[in-house]
Amino acid sequence: MSKTPLLDQLESGPWPSFVKDLKRIAAKKPQVQDLLGQLERSYKEKITHWKHGGIVGVLGYGSGIIGRYSDLPDDFPGVEHFHTMRINQPSGWFYTTEALRGLCDIWDRHGSGLLNMHGATGDIIFLGCRTENLEPCFAELTANGWDLGGSGSTFRSPSCCLGPARCEWSCYNTMEACYDITQEMQFDMHRPSYPYKYKIKFSGCPNDCVAAVARADLSVIGVWKDDIRIDQSAVKAYAGGELKPKGGGAHLSKLDVQADVTDLCPTFCMSFDGKTLKIDNKNCNHCMHCINLMPQALRPGTETGATILLGSHAPILEGAQLSWVIQPFMVMESPYDEFKELNARITEWWAEHGKNRERVGELILRVGMREFLEAAELPPVPQTVRIPRANPFFFWQPSDFEAEAKGRKYYTRKGYEVE
Amino acid sequence: MSQRITDIGPPHYSKFLPPIVKENYGKWKYHLIPEPGVLKHVSESGAELYSVRAGAARLITTDFLREVCDVADKFCDGYFRFTSRNNIEFLITDKAKIEPLKKELKERGLPVGGTGHSVTSIIHTQGWVHCHTPAIDASGPVKVVMDDLFEYFGTHKLPAQVRIALACCINMCGAVHCSDIAMCGVHRTVPKIDHDRLRHLCEIPTTIASCPTGAIRPHPDKALKSVTVNEPRCMYCGNCYTMCPALPCFDSEKGGIALLVGGKVSNAKSPPAFSRLAVPYIPNNPPLWPEVVSAIRKILIKYTEGANKWERLGEWIERIGWEKFFEVCDIPFSYQHIDDYKFQAYDTYRTSMHFKF
Fold first, then answer.
1. What is the DSSP letter of B90?
2. Does position A88 have pLDDT exceeding 60, yes or no?
3. Would you call B349 helix, strand, or coil by DSSP?
4. b/e string for B267-279 if b means 16 or more Cβ within 10 A?
């Protein structure tokens, strides 16, 4: 009789089965046999059988490894230690088979052979390593050009969409920005020195394929400032049905340019008279809808960069937040000095004022946007807010009166001089 | 000790880009989706790159990955990538290889799809396979939901893309909180205090500080060196357990799955939005979670029936109103649906006469 009657029911069905995959490797990996046993127990008892944490790691690093121990080590000795290793992924998750086979070899030698491609933050996740194998595994990884990512209260492994590698919409080089900033932040990634986790994600356009706005403390989303590029003959081809909406990715084969594109434009800044598509670009809010529907006719402009947003995180602890705009436009070009300097001001301010396990977005809610903007040396701009406050409870500081006396339009304590 | 290598960071991506990507980096002009699961990118230079997208489980093995490498060697000169939703993309330049590649993927049980107006792979967390705080498993519910919605993975028949996600507890690792449909594991019982362990394992001030509702207090019996939980104030977030292992809040019978719907991250038409509570509790019923599967199918079907073209699930609900959403999906409205958590609650109350009977 099967030892895993419940899990066995997940072997059939059209979607790829993790149970089938795990069973296949269990023949040569006794720890996977035990993992299946423990998982079957969880399925039966409807409860997890992993103990709470445990601090393990590799020498000199305070992150990259998450300790995991079974609470049933006598029944399933193979998963007594079953630690996670996070291996920092290359930008855009491109691989060669040679490189991945190399990683598989390392992981087969030192661990369970189980992994995720990839974890939610972006890293390659190796699941199931014994404590004594962590250091040898790490040594082999680094000897082959790989390194651990972040975990705990550190700078977490940044991730990015594939950007200019395969997308016509990318407004900056997401791949290089991600690589460059990752290298710049190695110390902060591997040695926990922050109040809590800190993530950066790079998306090339407002479609935001890596969900930067939802799950990165610092969200870098590509944007253009000038006009959407239009190929009028392609617009006509869409109107005539020769070109399919969304390049063929939609449930409809013919586009009604007025009903589907211009009437659904959130700012009503476009019109189509049957021949020519007109866009009032000054009133475009770069939502991407028209571009998404007519990829052969429309493209973002050429004066490109990124909007910097800050603050998103999942519900722990004050409720989920989406990132909000702190700088509407930044040119994102190597060596990314402006970005790095802003990032340093943010992390330094947060590290100084943040409470233990307080995300930077929560700190701003606690102390106020002004405190943050002044520390980050950013001026107040209307793009930061959706609507201004409705209450009259705003603060004035002595510096405001001083600046006012000097005839300045915007005031900050540091005397940010914007006329 | 021999010289250790540290802080080298990840390899530079240029090592892994196929020649066509290097040559056309930043020069892509437009793309097409000639059929579900196949993307065609055309460069200013006229070069054409095909990407064949296949779905896979997120929990995989080195055996599986080597198999994927074999396929990539056979058809793609050894180049492939993963998407942000755990799909695999095989990158090819020779159009004639698409059909043989698809055939091979089919034989190996890898479904092709996940493009355009589809239900693509469910992003998810670790669940009982590897996590210490989950209310539910992750890989299992994902497998059964994708089995059920399989017809939508390889087709473009939905009004817009539908992004499903699963988090095995309310920590919500991943962007579950901004998904069209989100499954979220929920605990529903207060922490069971293990006083003997607590005194040895936990720092009492940080444990008290960890509670977002102030429900944890020092135990009146000072000799005990422990804490008490004001039960009515506890909303089972498990944050205290993260700080103190002697406060587990698991319960094999009361834990379950909540469904949240209508979130999105893209800016297209409407701004990014959180998913909102649709179903507060569905029993945790392994191995096939039939109640979860049917609840998700019902929401998806009602959405496809009711949505205007191009409407995301949340945009459809926003247009018809949540009261209509609960009506058409036949979901009972409960106290749990009404927000009472901190600063976000007030913004969700209706302050107008704009509602429907």
1. E
2. yes
3. coil
4. bbbbbbbbbbbbb
| Closest Cβ opposite residue A7 in set B15, B59, B287 | B287
Please tell me the distance from the alpha carbon of residue A6 to that of residue A19, in angstroms, as a whole number.
10
Kindly determine whether residue B59 and residue A22, on different chains, have CB atoms separated by under 8 Å: yes
For chain B, give the mean pLDDT: 96
Q: Could you tell me the two tokens for A236?
A: 């006509």
What are the E-state strand segments in B86-168?
88-92, 123-124, 164-167
Q: By the 8 A CB rule, do B149 and B157 touch?
A: no
What is the pLDDT confidence band of residue A411, given thresholds at 50, 70 and 90? low
- B28/A166 touch (CB, cutoff 8 Å), yes or no: yes
Selecting from B62, B125, B209 the residue whose C-beta is nearest the C-beta of A104 gives B62
| Amino acid letter for position B108 | R
pLDDT at B337: 98
Residue A199 burial (C-beta neighbours within 10 Å; 0-12, 13-18, 19+):
buried
Of A21, A88, A208, the CB nearest to B60: A21
Question: Which of B130, B240, B342 should we substitute to test contact with A (largest number of A Cβ atoms within 10 Å)?
Answer: B130
- Name the residue type at position A78: G
Torsional sign, CA A37, A38, A42, A44? positive
Instruction: Work out the pLDDT band at B2, boundaries 50, 70, 90.
Output: low
Chains A and B form CB pairs within 8 A to the count of 365
Residue B21 has pLDDT above 60, yes or no: yes
Sort residue A111 into left (φ over 0), alpha (ψ -120 to 50) or beta. beta
